[in-house]
């Protein structure tokens, strides 16, 4: 039964990806601007325009181009870039993927490693006066915009202390240490706003769980406070926190677009902005589809994690 539930979720994810692909294709079809005229200029030769339009496949009807694009997707082919004519979209995404991946994963690890112990400590000491101060401080932390945090960190660590580079210079093959230094500030920028958010949410969830009947029963059995928090309260609180962590992961995938442009990092975010400015439809469609697929995959993983942590959720799914 459990495998059947996962199979249903898998097929629903496939249908969602198809719908998202159609929406993405329709969206870029409706955007103003002609990629042929952008490449050749407004006063270009009509013969060259027709030849390039045929070469790019833009002279075919919409539905033919869409189903051709879908067929290419099944083979893992996202087409050729309009602006980077010697590269395919997949090659361009691969060339920028590592930078975005390291920023996203590193930030997520820092958030999890820091916020779970911090949230637990806050929950244990929520009756003290310092708790109110820390709670207000955490609210200020996750309400500050990421781009403003980036500017402050650049001013402190780059301009004043001169410890880290202001702008990104990533070349993992030739300069791995310099490349790693270029990612420290972006990772810190994204982490600073997300650690208070997760710890604040976990703290509130644990405080709510600590007032429930099963905690009183555990205390009556003689279990110490640390054991109760670790084995019972934290485990049940993680169910609601998983949703927040999933939302943060989705934010990190999409939020790196802003941060990469602030720090001028050669990641998928800057590549997406380059594609938009050049009306490179295949490139932009490919990156947006990658982001959409990542969001769907994360939601699929979160559903599985729900059923693993709380068997009651799995049993409810089996009843359906």
Automatic annotation (TrEMBL):
Intracellular or extracellular location(s): Cell membrane
Main location: membrane
Membrane topology: Multi-pass membrane protein
Any one GO CC term of the record: plasma membrane
Record-given protein name: ABC transmembrane type-1 domain-containing protein
Transmembrane intervals: 10-28, 97-121, 133-157, 183-203, 238-259, 287-309
ABC transmembrane type-1 domain location: 97-306
Lineage: superkingdom: Bacteria
Residue ranges the record marks as coiled coil: none
KW Repressor (keyword) present: no
PROSITE patterns in the cross-refs: ABC_TM1
Biological process per Gene Ontology, one example term: transmembrane transport
Family: Belongs to the binding-protein-dependent transport system permease family.
